[in-house]
Amino acid sequence: MHCACREYLAVQPWWCILCARSDDSELLRYWLSMLEASGQIVLLELWFSNRTESIVKSPKLYLTDTGLLCALLNIRSGGALRQSPAVGAVRETFVFAQLRDRERRGGRTGSLFFWRDRTREVDFVVDTGGRLELFEAKWTELPDIGDAVNLDFVRNVVGKSRVAAGAVVCRTPNGFPLPSGFRALPVTEPR
User: What is this structure's pTM?
Assistant: First the structure.
């Protein structure tokens, strides 16, 4: 079960892919619901507004433990992680865990989403009373304006007044501004 899920973390549409590979979609649905109920996986829902069109509505699946994710991917060291084709998915899962923890500590549940249309995606949207924070997870240490292009796109779609902040969460040791008005942040800063 876990081996099938690991290939499709944060990939859309994961449900169709998993069902196509499973001989028993009801059994697969049962195990996914059990993993979700036990806190092993989280299905991150899509954020959308009435102004957003052409959206993809299936959720993203995240393992809640990056150590378990790395074990399932047979990543046993930092060097193996850096060489892995899944390094971006592992980083995204780690950023997800940090943001989810931040929202829980703030007493907010149901405030963390992602945004996607047919061609673009923003990894994480935090909706606090209609004000949005947008986050992209990137493995790089020095993101540039190209890493924030989807943040800028979503800010323009939903309206600049609704976006309180946005950042590329990356491996930089210290936060710094990006030319687009967003920031590059280490994973410890969006806390």
Answer: 0.84
